[in-house]
Fold L-aspartate dehydrogenase.
Amino acid sequence: MSTPTPRRVGLIGWGAIGRVVGGALAAGEIPGAELVCVVDNRPLGDSAPVPQYTVEQALDHCDLIVEAAGQGVVRECGETILASGTDLLVASTGALTDDELAKRLLHTGPGRVYFTGGAVGGLDLLQAVRAMGPLDEVRLTTTKLPSTLEQPWMDEQLLTRMRSATGPVEVMAGTARDVPVKFPKSTNVAASVALAVGAPDAVRVSVVADPTARHTSHVIEASGAHGTYRFEVRHLPDAANPATSQVVPYAVLRSLAALAGRTGQIL
């Protein structure tokens, strides 16, 4: 049996997620995947283990691009990447709450778009349940440290309430379409749940600030004609970027391993 050609991977973003992903790829920890280049809007010098390219240069050398730089990159570059014939793995799923963008990405080719579940589990099961019929109710409660949830649009009253809280404070309630727009760096989970159930407006989301929260937590509760489901995850925040969880880059690496053809993966 011939050995498959390794996936030539370009990584957009050399932050808390990108450094872990890039380091693992450069160390050969993902068989069948080779890190070719890094794209970042800052000069990286010798801090990256491979050359730093522009997006356009990366498309000449890669067959898979991994986005680890935020929703803006998905909006700005997603269609260009796919139209070039290069596959795209999206970590910042919050961008897909824009219906028009989601449709364009799903219908642009010949490159294929994939999404990683990031900091939450159970999405594969929710997708399977969805195939039997729509869910009646889906709720997500995300709890994080107040400092990781502060946003420019917040008024002084809300900021004061968050900063002086001694216990949990709900800072926003809405749908999986509304919330990722308001918290672009810390609520991609809401968009991932929406992708799994196929209806962002049907997913009710509560964002909670808790100064006592040692862990970031996500609780998904769903019910429908075929059953009820509850998933709860509690992660330590990433030390370099507390707005995200430590596990996120490893979720990206798992997705990469699947795309590279590693056997034994749970799909």
In short: The chain has a mean pLDDT of 90.
